[in-house]
Amino acid sequence: MDKFAGKYRIPSARASWWDYASDGAYFVTICAANHECYFGEIVNGEMIYNEIGSIANQYWLDIPFHFPFVTLGAHIVMPNHVHGIVVINRTNVDNGVATVDGFVETHNYASLPSERTPTTTTIPSEMPQSPTKNKFGPQSKNLASIIRGYKSAVKTYATTEGLLFAWQSRFHDHIIRDDAEYRRIEQYIITNPQNWGKDKFYRG
Q: Which domains does the chain have, with CATH numbers?
């Protein structure tokens, strides 16, 4: 364990040689505190959400509406953790204006859509136009800020609704290096509920 200013600190899980604001694909895992099953349960190989699980799933799908330079790959909210692929791509972001599936949004997020009806992990092709408050707080442009905003939004909802819930303080990420690795990770995420009994986070 390293020391900083004479005090012990836990080394960062982030790769010191990588700029996490760089364009790229990242496999992210976020765990609930103590691996408690806050989000629901697996029944016959299918994830059944409770209230906070539904919010965790919906808010994950909302990430591109708050961070227009992000697109999402496969994701799954499991009973006590979240797996997802986050792709940072600024190709369509220029001078504070971003295009997400044909929808133009400014970086001050003055007019985010208020209704969401996603049934898969893809971004909806049509987005309603009525305004809503930005749940994810002040914006930045790296992976940590994206995940921090997501975690904060879910926790805030739980606190407001009086739901018992807490996140583990950190998250794990893996930089996806090529298409073959992307496909392997994607398949792992999709089949995670069917393999729950063998999962390292399994709680019976």
A: 23-194 (3.30.70.1290)
pLDDT in tens, 1-56: 433 334 333 333 444 444 545 678 999 999 999 999 999 999 999 999 999 999 99
pTM: 0.70
pLDDT per residue as tens digits for the range 127-181: 233 334 556 555 467 899 999 999 999 999 999 999 999 999 999 999 898 889 9
Q: How many CB atoms lie within 10 A of CB 77?
A: 26
DSSP string over the chain: -EEETTEEEPPPSS-TTS-TTSSEEEEEEEEEGGG---SEEEETTEEEE-HHHHHHHHHHHHHHHH-TTEEEEEEEE-SSEEEEEEEE--TTEETTEEEETTEEEETT-TT--------SSSPPSS--------TT-S--SSHHHHHHHHHHHHHHHHHHTT----EEEEEEEEEE-SHHHHHHHHHHHHTTGGGGGG-TT---
